[in-house]
Specification:
This protein is about 30% helix and about 30% strand. It is α+β, with helices and mostly antiparallel strands and about 260 residues long.
Length: about 260
């Protein structure tokens, strides 16, 4: 209901938001035109544009040039659980169906998985050096990945190995990606058994290249995972900012207390 003193555009945004969240305006449905909203709600064009802009900033609607505004489609929400790396352990002996933690998260088969990659040698920054317990400036193999499920890019990351550990091995050859079993299976081929995975998760707004590559709607934050894989007490791989749009995933972790 209208509230005295409340801006008209916020009242209109409340009404449209309620229709979207209740399903009366379904995902993919066009939002009523500016002219229709002006007529039905007896408001100005500027009021309509402010209301639509607010809902766009909240990630509820998207606007395409020449196509108008419509309710943002709801993409499948995927479960990210602590046990997903066990799918990579199953790949070590080569008998399981090809999979990685990403395909497990996305619930897709190997044929639907695509990985864009770029490898280069870089010196360790202070942050990555701390994760890998190496001196800053240590030569590293940096691997930039964009992960696709079907035709849609779902996440991206930067992953690092100490160069001396993997130089001259199949791990350093981008032609071998995607690799069934991911990092865990890769390290097993050079005699390193990953015994623990440590992940730290936070939320932030996406930067422009993430917004473009992952087709993130305005107003939608991302979850970023910083990961370290350990063999005993030794860090052997670090991934910085595994970036996932927050509206496409849910975290599901079991924490045994016995």
């Amino acid at each position: 209901m209208p509230t005295p003193g409340r801006p008209k555009y916020r009242t209109l945004a409340d009404e449209l938001r309620g229709r979207i969240l209740s399903g009366r305006l379904a995902p993919g449905t066009p939002v009523p035109s500016e002219t229709e909203l002006m007529r039905v709600h007896a408001v100005s064009r500027n009021t309509v544009r402010l209301a639509v802009g607010l809902l766009r900033a909240e990630g509820l609607i998207v606007t395409r040039h020449g196509r108008g505004s419509y309710v943002r489609p709801r993409l499948p929400v995927r479960r990210i659980a602590s046990e997903r790396y066990r799918r990579e352990l199953e790949q070590i002996d080569g008998t399981a169906e090809p999979a990685t933690s990403f395909t497990a998260d996305q619930q897709i088969n190997w044929a639907a998985y695509r990985l864009d990659r770029e490898f280069r040698e870089v010196p360790a920054t202070a942050g990555v050096a701390e994760l890998l317990e190496l001196p800053p400036g240590t030569p590293l193999l940096e691997r930039r990945f964009v992960f696709f499920a079907g035709n849609r890019a779902q996440q991206m990351s930067y992953s690092y190995y100490e160069l001396a550990l993997v130089s001259g091995t199949p791990i350093a050859d981008p032609a071998n990606e995607p690799w069934p079993g991911g990092n865990i299976a890769q390290l097993a081929t050079i005699g390193i058994r990953v015994t623990e995975v440590h992940e730290r998760i936070r939320a932030r707004m996406p930067v422009p290249d993430e917004t473009e590559l992952l087709d993130i709607a305005p107003g939608v934050p991302v979850l970023t995972i910083t990961r370290v894989m350990l063999a005993g007490d030794r860090p052997v791989e670090a991934a910085v900012d595994i970036v996932i749009p927050a509206d496409r995933c849910e975290l599901d972790y079991r924490i045994p207390l016995d």
